[in-house]
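Let us work through a complete example step by step.
Step 1: write down the sequence.
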Amino acid sequence: MQSSVSTHSVSKLRPESSSSRLLSLDFFRGLTVAAMVLVNNPGDWAHIYAPLEHAPWNGWTPTDLIFPFFLFIVGVSITFALDGARSLEPGVRKKGIIGKIVRRSATLFLLGFFLNFFPKFDITTVRIPGVLQRIALVYLACSLIFLKTTSRQQLYILCGILVGYWLLMTVVPVPGVGFANLEPTTNLAAWIDRTIIMPAHVYKVAKVWDPEGLLSTLPAIGTGIIGMLTGTWLRSARPVAEKIAWLFAVGCLVTLGGLIWDGFFPINKALWTSSYVLLAGGLAMLGLALCYWLIDVQNYRRGILPFVAFGVNAITVFFLSGMIPRIMNLIQISQPDGTEIGSKEYLYRTFIAPPFTDPKNASLAGALTFVLIWFGILWWMYRKNVIIKV
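Step 2: predict the structure and record it as tokens.
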């Protein structure tokens, strides 16, 4: 990955210093992460506009596209970061590049686990899967696939994953249930989660399954592969106009394929269904193609740098935006009625919510305030050329 986090090293680099780096990719990554911070930090969880919530089960909202967009970007980034490694001798590659990939994946996984662990530090109930954990596993799998296979083989692997997952979920009988199904608690992925991970260590809201569970990580790897194929195409020596035209065309076809597949394998983020992979992957291709044309080809720069600042420190802001609210909630402030609330909620109630009559508008204002604060921090880091890396 081009943008990642480390707790032990900070390097100062110019984001534009690499000639192979796409400014549009940093912008697209930053826009995605800013959206992720926005939907993860409403002022009031009880009052959220529908597009900023996940679909209850089948179907999708704009919020459901954010995570697969990021995994797609991980796949694109792999092609820029690892393309030169393919020419290394096998022994050198094994000792050097693969070792770095494994260490980076382990660091991301442990950061995600720490987020789940903090602040209770209860090993008996800590959630094991999570967003950073899935990013780590997808990065690891896709990096190894990229180093060991050709683009054609990657396409075959993608098709095998999507068709194989569809058959697993719709044909294989679920132990204890007796038939294949796609219901929340009785599908095959849910059974694997509570059998291997155990209910005490899955997503507490779902209770007996996890939206970032084991089996559904397989099609998530497919999302990363779509990104790798897109990145390989962007790095090809073909004329720019041809690359953009084909990206738009294939993006439309892949999106259409997801909508068609939705008819018999419903689009579902929690299950990361194959139709969902195609829908999100196709839309991500279209989004990146548009950014690439505007920013890298047409040289459009107005208003993009704040999102570029988000993009070059993407994992940093995701990790800290999860940590800081939890730390703030540890600081309890007494209320006139004798109760206590966390400092984050106190600031929201005192300074953000009062001007608004509609609680949804107030909640949205709280989320936007949080994003704007991060804009300021990341803009300062960008101007100082600070990128926190693994």
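Step 3: interpret the result. The two ends are 9 Å apart (CA to CA).
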